Amino acid sequence: MDLGLKGRTAAITGGSKGIGYAIAEEFAREGVNLHLASRSGDELKNASKKLIDAYGVKVETQAVDLSNRQVRDTWARDHASADILVNCAGAIPGGGLDQVDEDSWRRAWDLKLFGYIGITRIIYAEMCKRGSGVIINVVGAGGISTRASYICGAPNNAALISFTNALGGESIRHGVRVCGVNPGPVATERVDYLRKIEEERVPPAEREAWNKRYLDAMAYGRSARPDEVSGMVAFLASDRASYITGAMLTIDGGMFARGGAPGSPVKKPV
Asked: What angle do helix axes 113-130 and 102-111 make, rounded to 10 degrees?
């Protein structure tokens, strides 16, 4: 499907791997030129080469620590002319309250919560002046079904969901749409890390059953593929989604509708 995005420009944080790279590839396939940011210069270089070789679009990359406010704001000002902003950078630690110390908690929120808000603040203002633009926040289904084993990520995601809902309700008055997606588990290095953290909290004798529940909770008995998220992001960025703003779409294969997060005990009827 031609989404009519050819020639537009997208700024994507966390664009070197995982969901962020899949989104970059989806846009490149549609002819969108890219500004990619992440912490790893080598990963960005590899991502850029693959995208240029495969799709012939313009790709600009910058290795930056977006948890640093000054660096973050400079990057946002430098890319405020983008037609599309995708906030996707995040490194929320897994674990319970006894595992995530305050310094780790603050670093994580500086990158994802305040990073999304700070970058949006600058680019949104320029989009409003132009009377056009789309901002898409990649948040996470952990924000709508919280659990103690993801104690740092759950409230972070819940805050970003509310932020997206609130801003998107007003933004359309300025010709700008703000919306987002809540992926469930996606087959990336990050989800492998989070799964390992959660598994370590389970007594060894119960891990086999826990792993079975983990997979049974998912559609098709597997995590989502990154392209099962990126296609929706591209659609939301297009004019075909011109009446969608202030909304979050959950992409989890119905996991939470069936009873909750991976590894959770099966809910018995009352």
From this structure: 20
194-251 pLDDT, tens digit each:
777 777 777 888 888 877 777 777 788 888 999 999 999 999 999 999 999 999 999 9
Structure-block tokens of residue 169: 């309700």
Amino acid in the structure at residue 62: Q
Query: Computed over its alpha carbons, how large is the radius of gyration of the chain?
Result: 18
Q: Under DSSP, is residue 109 helix (H, G, I), strand (E, B) or coil?
A: helix
Alpha carbons within 13 angstroms on the beta-carbon side of residue 89 total: 32
Q: In this structure, are strands 133-138 and 176-183 parallel, antiparallel, or unpaired?
A: parallel
Instruction: Spell out the domain ranges in the chain.
Output: 9-186+228-250
Place of tokens 């300025």: 174
How far is Cα 66 from Cα 13, in angstroms, rounded to an integer? 8
> Residue 193 to residues 103, 115, 180: CA-CA distances in angstroms?
20, 22, 24
Is 50 exposed, middle or buried (CB count within 10 Å of its CB: 0-12, 13-18, 19+)? middle
Q: Give the Cα separation of 28 and 52 in Å (integer).
A: 8
| CA atoms in the 13 A half-sphere facing the CB of 46 | 7
Structure tokens that stand for 115 in this block: 């990073």
Ramachandran angles phi, psi of 75, nearest 5°: -60, -45
Residue 141 tokens, joined:
């289904």
Strand extents, DSSP E, the chain: 9-13, 33-38, 59-63, 84-87, 133-138, 176-183, 248-251
pTM of the model: 0.90
Fold of 9-186+228-250: Rossmann fold (3.40.50)
